[in-house]
Amino acid sequence: MTIHTPPQSYMLRDIVEVAVAPSVSWMPQTIGWRVVAVIALACAIVWSYKSLQRWWSNRYRREAVASLDMMLQACKTAQETDKVYRQQISQDVYRVLKTVLSAVDPQTRPLYGQPFLQSLDAQSEPRLDVFASKWSHWPQSLLVKQNALDKTELLALIADSQVWVKQHLALAKNAQGEMSDA
Q1: Cα angle at 171 between 169 and 175, to 5 degrees?
Q2: What number of other Cβ atoms are within 10 A of residue 162's Cβ?
Q3: Are 50 and 163 in contact (CB under 8 A)?
Q4: How far apart are CA 182 and CA 180, in angstroms?
Q5: Tell me: the pLDDT tens digits for 103-118?
Q6: Using CA atoms, how far apart are residues 175 and 61, in angstroms rounded to an integer?
Q7: For residue 159, how many C-alpha atoms fall within 13 Å in the half-sphere facing its CB?
Q8: For this UniProt entry, which segments traverse the membrane (predicted)?
Q9: Which has more pLDDT, 83 or 96?
Q10: Are 74 and 155 in contact, with CB atoms under 8 Å apart?
Q11: CA 68 to CA 65: how far, in whole Å?
């Protein structure tokens, strides 16, 4: 152990060492900041819960949009003369829309044809008759191979279906929001 000796220089002889100040705690000193922290934490938990609930309740939309995207890619690669393939894609689009509509409103399960198209329009935001007026011939094309939709009509049907799946109303009321990017 060494013994501290004062400096030998006359200039440093009268210097007194400064005492180190105690460290400052990062914790708030007053109760008010703790209350603010608890309120902020509670708000973050509620926001996280509601976001998770919205995400979970809109999972059917994501699945339907993914299915419609696959059908869109399949339709783009299909030959113009392949009516059976286009009719199969059209039936698949119908099944997806039927499944989504049944999830939204179980009373629509037995509907087919014009009542089905009207129930799709009833769930759309501006209440436009897109399906009932524009696609009134679609149910007939599902049944008869000669009436199958051509490639451009099928692409337009899939596009309208994707818009409907992303923007229909029923579960958006329950989930407090809609899917922003599907």
Answers
A1: 115
A2: 19
A3: no
A4: 6
A5: 887 887 888 887 888 8
A6: 12
A7: 8
A8: 31-52
A9: 96
A10: no
A11: 5
DSSP per-residue string spanning 136-153: TTHHHHHH-GGG---HHH
pTM higher than the cut 0.85? no
Single-letter amino acid, residue 91: Q
Number of C-beta neighbours around residue 83 at 10 A: 17
Nearest one of 181, 171, 153, 177 to 89, comparing CA atoms: 153
Rounded to an integer, what distance in angstroms lies between the CA atom of residue 90 and that of residue 150? 10
Both structure tokens of 125: 């935001």
Q: Half-sphere exposure of residue 11, counting CA atoms within 13 Å on the CB side?
A: 0
Block residue for tokens 């490639």: 151
Rounded Cα–Cα distance for residues 71 and 171 (Å): 24
Buried b (16+ CB within 10 A) or exposed e, 115-152: ebbebbbbbbeeeeebbbebbeebbebbeeeeebbebe
